[in-house]
Amino acid sequence: MKRQLLTGNAAAAWGARLAGVDYVPAFPITPQTEIIETLANWFETGAMDGRLVMFESEHSMVTAAGAAAATGVRVFTASSSQGLLYAMEMVYTVAGWRAPFVMVNVSRGVASPLTLESDHNDIFAARDSGFLQIHCATGQEVLDSILMAYRLGEDARVRLPVMVNMDGFYLSFTREPVELPEPAQVAQFLPPYDAENIRFRASKPISQAVAVLGGAPYSYFRYETHLAALQALVVYDEIEQEFARTFGRTHSAVESYCADDAEVVFFMIGAFATKAKDAVDRLREAGEKVGLVRPRLMRPYPAEAIRRVLAGKQAVAVIDQNLSMGKGGVLHSELASVLYGHKGAPPIIASFIGGLGGRDISAEEFYEIAKQMRQAAATGNTPEPRLLYTQNELRQFRKLQAIAVVERQDLGGGTA
Amino acid sequence: MSEAAIKRMKDLPSTHLLGTGTPMCAGCGGLEALHEIYDILGTKTVFVNAAGCMTLLSVYPFTPFRGSWLYTAMASAPAGAQGVRDALDILISKGRMPPEEDLATVVLTGDGAAYGMGLSSTSAAIDRGLDFLYICYDNEGYGNTGQQTSAATPHAARTATSGGSRGVPGFKKDLFAIWAAHRPVYVATVIGAEPLDLAKKIEKAKGMTGSRLVIALSPCPTGWEYDPRESVEIGRLAVKTGVWPLKEYVDGEVIHTHVPHPRLPVEEYLKKQGRFRHLFEPVRNAALIDEIQARVDAYWASVS
């Protein structure tokens, strides 16, 4: 086993390479582009055997990914943000084809306003598509999760495409030491893709992705996809154990950090959870019983595991790096829906929105959140949802606006 | 099938491969063309479909195709064909599929996809030199939703979204020229009412490698408003009046495979269709009919 300093993007490319993918339909978008450039180079030099094809849009790219998977090859692709949204019709469509492949999403905020930096509104737009979702916090996880995603998606009990998510910039462009598994070990863990009956062959004509008429056949296929996604929870646990036996690393569906004896828990996903871990360490040093719970699986939703790990906690602070306009955080409402009415469910489930468009969440903010949670637990009152934004940020923003106005006046532009 | 096996009507295949009992309308000119095309292409094919009338050919759990089928979406059937083609190539080159299991990739879309939403993905597929055959059944409007105006709708035709006395103000997009400008290996126009011309072209396209694209003008009883039994006659009139030139693009050159002589007045074609009735009733709109005639005359003057 080799350890290398790799960006999150390079770790993703290594995941695809080690998985022995046959086909990569590609389209560039920041902050994902490094993945397809790396893979293109490996196909070019013969380090990988197969084909990378540039498409004219993500919509076409995902169509081709699904079509190639439906023909029986192992497919990898990647996108981000606007690209994922542009492809969204096909993201929903190909999931129903039940032809597995893996797509890495490098999370980036969605327009408007246009931005390059990270949050999770892009990946959550794909939440109800039928793709399974694994959310990563480190480069190692990105690589490992891609290998696991192929096992999971290709399992005969599942047969669904899988998205592996990493945060743009914070993870995609950050170099971390990553262990590269030996190809022989990978081969042992991840056998070649057996498409079984999902494929086109001259001797076995097949109609795939056909229309239905009426609600009953439509519901039949939609329920089947949902049940397959739920089945992936069972399959994931098997794969996780086998992965641990093969590689000596564990990536459970729900990561629990210092949560066993915790009274207050941070609940979040992705790379920013590593910031929460650091805050937990500091708070623990100060004698506070604080922990972190980080689901890696978002679809299927590991409801049972989450209930188990949160049972008996006094307060949960859900930190969402996404915003459903007019509602709030997606993680928060989903968590509340699986805890409500269950024995041992924490009485306080509070919502915090932060980290939008790459905005940092500082250690002080974690401390403040923990403090509010202790107060809420003591009084029994759940605080109103909070949109994290500091006085200083607002001041800087106002300054920027003021400078722009002055500049415009000085240069004689506009009417102000 | 050996090279140029089809020379006369009696050479046309007598075995018909496409099943019957589809939900297509009676007298569908697109289905007529598809029957003829499928007889030539055969069953070692995968039809990659975009949203349109013919999406309803394969409705779970039935299909008229004896070969394979993949429905994609409205805009990206050529990208679906790319994925299938690439996957088959990879499987063969890696020895994971015997070559005799290979399939020809055929894109099947209406004019709504071909002339509009799917033009970008078609352009890109030709850029990449995708080895595929594109069949566009062109019924000159969004037929499946009730004949709204598309980029393929001809000037002055009345549609569900252009109901005025002058019909559609725009002009039918020259998709043949747009496709040919990409310099693919083959582009052709066909019509089901001229089965020999169609068969020769499909046979030729079948024998080629690379991007091959065919537009089949598809008389549409419901959208063009005429009795279904008139479909073949209206198709023939489209050719005889010169409204639908039968041609092909090969090696950088456009060749007309049939030059109507003498050309019938366009009026003969227009007056049979309800979508042009406003040109004749309640009063004859001679200026507009003349304008349409002049445009057809100018086309043929430019190519002769």
Short description:
The complex is a heterodimer of chains A (416) and B (304). Chain A is α/β, with parallel strands linked by helices. Chain A is built from 14 helices and 16 strands.
Structural features:
A: 416 residues; alpha/beta; Rossmann fold; 2 domains; 16 strands; B: 304 residues; 10 helices; 34% helix; globular
Walkthrough of the structure:
The complex is a heterodimer of chains A (416) and B (304). With 416 residues, chain A is an alpha/beta fold. Chain A is built from 14 helices and 16 strands. Chain A has two domains: 2-247, Thiamin diphosphate (ThDP)-binding fold, Pyr/PP domains (Rossmann fold, 3-Layer(aba) Sandwich); 254-391, Rossmann fold, CATH 3.40.50. Chain A has helices at residues 8-18, 33-45, 58-69, 81-86, 88-95, 121-125, 139-154, 183-189, 215-247, 273-285, 303-310, 330-339, 363-379, 391-411, and strands at 2-6, 23-26, 51-54, 76-79, 102-107, 132-135, 162-167, 176-180, 207-208, 254-257, 264-267, 290-295, 297-299, 315-320, 348-353, 386-387. In chain A, strand 15, helix 13 and strand 16 (386-387) form a beta-alpha-beta unit. Chain B is an alpha/beta fold. In chain B, helix 1 (29-41) packs across helix 6 (195-206), helix 2 packs parallel to helix 4 (119-127) and helix 3 packs across helix 4. Chain B is globular and about 70 Å long. The two termini of chain B are 34 Å apart. The mean pLDDT of chain B is 96.
